[in-house]
Amino acid sequence: MTAAEKPSYRVIGTRPIRPDGVEKVTGKALFGADARPAGLVYGKVLRSPHAHARILSIDTRAAEAFPGVLAVATARDLPAASDEVQALGETAVNLKELSDNVLASDRVLYRGHAVAAVAAASVHVAEEAARRIRVEYEPLPVVLDVREAMLDDAPLLNERLLTRSMGKTISDRPSNVASKVQFVGGDVEKAFAEADAVVERHFTTKMVHQGYIEPQTATVQWNPDGEITVWATTQGAFACRGQLAEVLRRPASTIRVIPMEVGGGFGGKTPVYLEPVAAILSRKSGRPVMLTMSRSEVFEATGPTSGTSIHVKLAASGGRLTAAQLDLAYEAGAYPGSSVSAGAMTMLAPYDVENFKIDGYDVVVNKPKTAAYRAPGSPAAAFALEQAVDELARAIGADPLAFREASSSREGTRMVNGMPFPRIGHEECLRAAMESAHYRSPIEGPNRGRGVASGYWFNAGMQSSVTVAVNTDGTVNLVEGSSDLSGTRASLAMQLAESLGIEYSQVRVTVADTDSVGHNDVSGGSRTTFATGLAVHQAALDIQQQMRTRAAKLWGCAEDEVVYEAGSLRCTTDEAKTLTFAGMAAQSARTGGPINGRASLLARGAGGAFGTHIADVEVDPETGKVQVLRYTAVQDVGTAIHPAYVEGQIQGGAAQGIGWALNEEYYYDDDGRLANASFLDYRMPTALDLPAIDTVIVEVPNPGHPYGVRGAGEVPIVPPLAAIANAIADATGHRFSDLPISPRRIVETLHHLE
Amino acid sequence: MEAFEYVAPRTLADAYSLLGNGRRVAALAGGTDLIVQLREARRSCDLVLDLKRIPELRVVTIAADGSLQVGAAAPLADVYEIPEVRRRWPALVDAASIIGGTAVQGRASLGGNLCNASPAADSPPALMVMGARLRIGSAAGTRELPVGEFFAGPGQNTLLPGELLLEVIVPPMPAHSAAFYHRFIPRNEMDIAVASAGAWLQVGSDGTIEGARIAIGAVAPTPLMVPAAAQALHGRKAGAEAFALAAQEAASAARPITDMRGSAAQRRHLVGVLARRALERAHQRATEGR
Amino acid sequence: MAEVWVPALLRPLCGGTARLQVEGATLGDVLRAVEARCPGFMERVVSEGALRPEIAVAIDGEAGSFPLFEPVGPASHVSILPAIGGG
Q: What is the CATH number of the domain that holds C69?
């Protein structure tokens, strides 16, 4: 939007220091592993050395007898969990599978699957004792690749698993395909027959990990009276409590989850892994127990995102995209529940395509159960689609951005699931990209190339609760329950200050534990600044209303004659009667007692959002090394509450996407052993591998939010995979359709090595 | 991590007396490999013998004969920060300054890098092409051997029971000669060589190659000298043609494996590219200022 | 009349139709009206009085697991879609 259209805000759009900033930069902030309840002891988990095996027996006697051991836990200590699906942020989990994933009962489904755990005064004693647990396995055949797992004769992970599709079982015998989705519109065959150009290509991506710095850790104290306290690193204290209550079969009210600072989540800190195990060890030992994963445990046993296999066929006619036939198979890992439906629904979102047929398959394989990872499902889909779009634009001689603009979705365009888009900003992103200094600059020199790509993410609403206490000195305390992963304390305090007409510095924010605030869904789906922001705004309106009621009584005027504006109350019929926010706050005790605002809501109107990225690369054709020379990320964020943190989100997403494009992958040997379970060999980009990432913030306000907020955190990881691939294709003349586009892949391809 | 004993003797004699006796002893210098291996249970031992407190193992000197003598436990930074080392043995700096990051280089030692005997270690190819020798000691006395004879396989060196690596001796570079070392890593930091190559060249005033050595890393169970590459260069004019021949020999000598760091085919290809580029850079160094 | 977008996998129940116009003031009414035209539809979408966990509904562009009493406007658009799973 133009500057003239944009409402003028006092606080929104400024860049104040985050409330948690000083604690974090001075090392005083307390993360999960900083929990130190009195009498704390430590545990260690024993994990499966097999990628697929039946557990014949577990003998824990030697571990129990080991000096210093306080407790040993196995799946026998867990109550049988119900076989039902529970909503978990943007995702859903089957609790029986969750329970089996926490401690395997009869079968291990991936290497690193937890089998037992030991608590002792020292983690080294626990580790030595765990090694003395004797587990008898019957190894089973392993299936690692998604397409192989779909074959009729593939080894089965679960003999009871049948393929489901839209409320019905569609397979007549057990399968690794847990579910199928399909979207059909128009007449694909006809559109391909009449097309000016057709592109067809197959793409694959490997499992990749979120790569958060802080490993999973959980500390649990189970008191003899049944009260359980959990110190957790989690994206959602309530989701953590809910899963724990179900797995342990305990009432939710007996469990208090204290959210510690989170050292990175990106979706990966929504499932529980260690909490139920630490709880059992605490119940059996009578001591608070801390379990912390090593880095290799994080890689082997927590949820990465799916490896995928995607077939794309696209057609263009009259200078625009007219047809798409897509087939997506996503690895769910050990249990069903990949992000394939999101992949299938986001893949064509940037474009208004009349004719489409999309099939999607959710497939179990002998690898860890996947978890959410930033815009789950969308980056791999965009990697495939946006390369094919690039190829199609070249085939008809169109500028890649102009071709995208000619084909772009806009308000009213139907998504593949039939939903019409509300006001969206893809065209605005494309235009901003075309007008950017980056895109207008030439790309020169040998072995250099430029690529562009767009991406979409739904963004989520879900549930939030907040309370705001007004203090008599005019300051306020905001108590909320959204884990702060990205500066949301600041973005929420800013919205509260804006809505109340007070200064940002007058707001203190606390992320409370589950006993101290109403239910909040996970910080996920880019929802916190949007949805908890809505709750904050409603709580502010609640305070305004309470103050207007009191002012009307004080002044003897009608309530509808009292206006709350820019942090002050005034009477429209008597100009002499005014009170500042602080003035009214000071009179709380005399006018009816404390003023507390509250709001609980199920947020609707989360605006989906688009981004368009531009990448310049240089490829060393002899070594296959790719340097990213310049990178610009354009994104519609609705309204940037705190532009610096929005930019940080965009840069962070782009950085993760660049790593995914170039080097990151789960590298398995044939037996299902993850060979690169460390940051040494799981190659995320370092600061030296990335250029400064320029950001262009586009603001097409979301009509579903009073300040126009759209989620910003996930969109930026969607375009980079394809933007980099398109740039490499431009630089080398070769299109790489398999990730990662590592030096190995590049030299093997360019030099025709076997 | 399993429990182990830790001793930090002050003299070599004390250190020797702690070796053997049927115990599994792990010598610790910087510890940047050893501690990680112990923590990750990739290695276990009964005794960690910390050599850092033995003064002569930390000394870095330039001897009267012009050779550089580096105590086995001297931190890398103590070596490459010496201006004369940077001037006279730049290939040593090439290697020493990419082993780990800056913080690690304040602890990690040349001796440890050698004893750890990783096929992908950075210092061996550089030291091999410079003709470096190792001084090894035991209660019975000392012996010397060329660096290239120190490696027996991945993680295996040729130290005998009761022996410690004492010193790395790098001879002075002859006139009109220079060495260069580099590796290939997919990122720009925090990686282990996918393949590496060191080259040393001595070039006559008419451009004829009078001496050459090529060593390659991460492409065999041990770092390898490639005599065939040296022979291909000898007597030829320094330049693209000769370097390409040598590079081909280096690639042929490689016996790489496929693992998560790279494929055999990629490594064989890369080591040729790296050898050629190393020769170009060594040649540049050797002929600078002519 | 509300417009209902029938997902591809349920279209065989509706004679291949992708879009239906039906009367209904709530989501439940709308789904029952679809059932009247496409026998077997309800069972695929609803279980025990609520949307199946693997199913979501979008009403006027807002997707979610709505209750069956959710109001539907006279010109509303209703899509049946798979729930956004996993990740």
A: 3.10.20.30
Do B and A touch, counting CB pairs below 8 Å (3 needed)?
A: yes
Residue from B260, B263, B267, B268 whose CB has the most chain A CBs within 10 Å, to mutate: B260
Which residues, in sequence order, are CB contacts of A3 under 8 Å at separation 6+?
none
**Terminal Cα distance for chain C, rounded:** 36
Is residue C87 one of the residues assigned to a domain? no
Q: How confident is the model over A53-59, as a mean pLDDT? A: 98
* Domain assignment present for C31: yes
Residues of chain B in Cβ contact (below 8 Å) with chain A: 1-3, 40, 184, 186-192, 194, 259-263, 265-266, 268-270, 273
Q: Does the CB of A185 have a partner CB in chain C at under 8 Å?
A: yes
Chain C CB contacts of A417 below 8 Å: 5, 7, 58, 79, 81
**C56 near C82, Cβ under 8 Å?**
yes
- Against a cut of 0.90, is the pTM above it? yes
Q: Which CATH class is domain A21-27+461-603?
A: alpha beta
> Phi-psi region for residue A416, left (φ > 0), alpha (ψ -120 to 50) or beta?
alpha
Q: What is the dihedral of CA A74, A77, A82, A86, to 10 degrees?
A: -70
Q: Do A87 and C84 touch (CB under 8 A)?
A: no
A31 touches chain B (CB under 8 A): no
Element (H, E) at A549: helix A533-555
CB contact under 8 A, A680 and B191: yes
Q: What is the ipTM of this complex?
A: 0.95
Provide the number of structural domains found in chain C.
1
Average pLDDT across chain C, whole number: 91
Token pair for A704: 């579903």
Domain that includes residue C42, residue range? 2-82
Q: Return the amino acid letter for B186.
A: P
Residue C68 lies in a domain: yes
Percentage above 70 pLDDT, chain B: 99
DSSP code for A529 = I
Phi, psi of A21 (to 5 degrees): -65, -50
Whether A89 shows a pLDDT value over 50: the answer reads no
Beta bridge partners of A229: A221, A256
Report the pLDDT averaged over residues A638-644: 98
Asked if C touches B (at least 3 Cβ pairs < 8 angstroms), the answer reads no
What is the rounded average pLDDT of the residues A716-720? 98
Task: Report residue B192's pLDDT band, with 50, 70 and 90 as the boundaries.
Answer: very high
Asked whether the beta carbons of A433 and A696 are under 8 A apart, the reply is yes
What domains can be seen in chain B, in order of their start residue? 5-170 (3.30.465.10), 177-287 (3.30.390.50)
For residues A27 and A19, give the distance between their C-alpha atoms in angstroms, rounded to a whole number.
14
* Placement of tokens 């190894």 in the chain: A139
CA distances from B62 to B59, B71, B113, B123 (A): 10, 11, 21, 19
Domain A419-459+607-750: give its CATH architecture.
2-Layer Sandwich (3.30)
Question: Which part of chain A is CATH 3.30.365.10?
Answer: 21-27+461-603, 419-459+607-750
Report the distance separating Cα A647 and Cα C28, nearest Å.
43
Residue C28 lies in a domain: yes
- Does the beta-carbon distance from B190 to A679 stay under 8 Å? yes
